[in-house]
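Morning run. Coffee first, then this:
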Amino acid sequence: MYEHCPVCHLIYEREEGFYTGAWAINLIISELLVAAFIVLVAIWAATHPGTPLIPLIIVGALFSILLPFLFFRHSRSVWISMNYWLNPPELE
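And here it is:
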C-alpha cells in the first residue's frame, strides 16, 4: 500500500489496528454477496430438478475465498473515507 496519496498527499499509514474496521467491512460485503449468490442459486436449483450441485458448491466456495481478496483495497478506502467523514481534519 502507498504511504500517502500522490495527488492530495493524504497519509494512509495510521496507528496499529486502525484498519480493523476495514477488515470487517470487507468480510461483511463479500460474504453478503456470497449469501445473495447462494440464495439465488438455491432458488434456481429448487425450480430446476436434476441440477448438479457439486459445481455450484465449488463456485460458491471459490467466491467466498476470492471476494475478500478482490475487495480488500476498496474496503480500506471506504474505511478511511468514513474516518474523514466522521472526524474531519481541522483547518490550520
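The chain has one domain: 20-86. Good start to the day.
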